[in-house]
Amino acid sequence: MPHDSLPSARGCLGCRSEARASLPPIAMAFQPIVALIPGGTAIFAYEALVRGAQGEPASHVLAQVGPDNRYAFDQRCRVQAIEQAAALGLGGTEASLSINFMPNAVYEPQACIRASLEAARRVSLPRERLIFEFTEGEAMADPAHLLNILSTYRATGFRTAIDDFGSGWSGLNLLAMFQPDIVKLDMGLLRGADTDAARRIILRHTVAMCRDLSIQVVAEGVETEGELQVLRELGVTLFQGYLFARPGFNALPVPSPLPR
Question: What are the backbone dihedrals phi and psi of residue 191, each rounded to the nearest 5 degrees, phi first?
């Protein structure tokens, strides 16, 4: 698809029903994904995390989302993330923006990315700096539909990521059918890996598998220096977690210095 063209929203059920949806007020928090580089760290991306307008947790917001407003909510979150990150100065950095999306809220992939493309164009954010991530555990009634979404996003120029990889049973099947740009290891898989030999073995083979498939690995939820050390020894270079920075409500946090 030419980068200066936008897909038509005509014929998309979600687009036709969006105006009738009632939505909770939202804002965004942002958490950095840190890249280890010689001599220190760099910010690889910021993940946009939905919050209530006054900073209420995501669970408070998601409790107000159902089949009748899921599409409109998903669309608003995408646009809000792009516009809010740009207003905070993301465009003046080299960091990408990672946006969570709901596969079940996408009716027709080319039509449903129109608002995202328009928002990115308004704030002069190249689409190559947008990452769309979905959780491994999200229920998908139609895996073929998910693959169509991912293929469309890749053809459009977006990057894709599987979040919470290792938290469910579908991850390996997904990788067999489609190789995303990024896999984010579930925090439960790496928690305590510095003291648990079984977890280290699983992590080592998972990281090696992703490397063989040319997939970047992000270790998510890193909280201790012990976990960081083990992951570094396994060759992981991208990290996200409280050890580096907590999510910043309406802010792009600067990561803490690399632990020594």
Answer: -65, 125
Residue pointed to by tokens 């980068």: 3
Amino acid at position 120, single letter: A
C-alpha dihedral sign at 238, 217, 186, 195: negative
Lowest mean pLDDT among 54-63, 70-79, 100-109, 192-201: 100-109
- How many residues belong to the chain? 260
Q: Do residues 6 and 117 make contact, with C-beta atoms less than 8 angstroms apart?
A: yes
Distance CA 52, CA 58 (A): 7
- Residues 6 or more apart whose CB falls under 8 angstroms from that of 85 comprise 28, 30, 46, 48, 97, 125, 252
Rounded CA separation 60/111 (Å): 29
Rounded to two decimals, the pTM is 0.90
pLDDT at 156 over 70: yes
